Amino acid sequence: MDDAPPLVRLPSPTLPPGLKPVPTLEGHDDERATTLRRLLEKGHVSVAPLREPKLILHSHLPHLLGSAYLLGASSTLLEELYEHEVSTLVQVDDSFIRGDAITRENWRDFLTQKSYTVAYVDFFDREIKQQNGDWRQVLKSYLCSGPEPLINGYAGGLGHPFIHLAYSWELQSPTVASEALSLGCTEYFGVHHLLDQYPPDNSTYKTTSLADAIHRIYKDKRFDNLFPEQGITNIEVLLQKRYEAVLEHWNAWHVSDSLVQLEHCCDMSVLLAIGTGNREAKYDFYLVHTMTVAHALRVLWDQFPTEQRICILRQYALFLILVYICQKKPAFEANIIDTILSVDLGGQDWESVRAKALGHQWLKDSHFFKVVRAPMAFEETYGKKDNFYLKASAKFIAEFDGWEGFGLGVEGFLPSRDGYKPT
C-alpha cells in the first residue's frame, strides 16, 4: 500500500508498544492546584460553555487555566488569567434554559441546539451527583453507547469537545467533564453519520500516511478557488460542492495500526499548525486546532475503548481534511518539516521555553499556552526526535504575533480584529 517513498517527510516514528497514561492533577494539593480547582469550580457556575456571537464560539477557560498551570503558572497568574478570560464569556443568568429541561429520556432530542448549553451542564451535573460523584462512569455511559455514540460527533465545534474532555481528564475535574459533555451535545459534528455507519469506499488510492493524503489534497485542483476567503464557515459550501471528493481522500486513508497512526497524526499536526506559520503571515487559528485536538486524543487514548480507536482516528482525519480545505490549502510540500528542523535553539531547552511562554506578551490569549504545550506533551510521549517538538514550540514562541485564517469572521465577529490583543 505504501511501497512508494512518502510524499511528505515526517520525523522518524518511535513506535512505542503502548502509551502510558498521562500524568493528572489527582493527588496534588499544593497552593497552585488548590487555586486551579477553585477557579474551575467558580467558572463552572458563573459562565456558559458557549459564548457570543450567538453562542457560536466556545469557552476556553479550563484550557487556558489548565495549560497555564501545567506549564508552571503561579497562583497569582492563574487568578489574573481567570479574571481576564471570564470578562470575554457569557455569564449564566435567567435568560438561559435551565433546570430539568434535559432528562435521561430526551437528552438526544436537543443535540446541536446551542440554546441548551447550560441546560446540558445542569443535566450532566445531576447525572454525576446521582452516580455519587463518579464522573468517569458518566463519561463512559454517555460517550460511547448506542448505535450513534456521542463521541462520533466530538470533532464538531472545531474539536473543542475533545479538547475540553482532555482537560477534564488531565485536571481530574468533574465540572470540566460536565462541560465537555455539554459541548459534545451542542457541537455535535454534522457529519457524524459518516462515522456511525461508514459510507461506501470511493477512494482512488490507498495510503496509511495521512500526511500523504493531505499532500494529494493540496495538489488536487478540484479544491482550488472554492471560496473567496479562508474560514471554517466554508464547510457548508465545501460539503455541498465537493462532498464526494472529500470522501475520496478520506476513504483513501487506511488505519491499519491505530497506535502507530496516532503518532503519525500528532507529528503531522505539528507540521500543519506550526510548520505553515511564521511571523509575517502569522499563524492559522484553525490549523492550530488540528494540533490541539491531536494532543487531546493522545491524552485520552488509554480512556477510549479499544474498539472505538480506529473510528476516533477516522473522525480526526475527516476533521483535519475539512479544516485544511476550508483554509484554502496552505502549502504542504515534501520538505515542510525543514521549517521546524532549521530552527536554531541557541541553547534553549524546555525550561527556558516554559519561562518564555509564561512571560510572553500573548500569555492571556486563550490558545497560546495550549499551542506551546502540545509539542511538549508529544515529546513526553514519543521522545526528542532531533528536537523536533522543542524546535516547534520555540519557533511558535519566537514568531507568534496574532492569529489569522478567519476570513470574514463569524456573525460579524472577526477575532483578529475584535479578539484579544496585548496592551
TrEMBL record:
Protein's UniProt name: Uncharacterized protein
Domain of life: Eukaryota
Region ranges (Disordered): 1-28
Alphabetized GO MF terms: oxidoreductase activity
InterPro entries per the UniProt record, alphabetical: Questin_oxidase-like
Assigned keywords, A-Z: Oxidoreductase
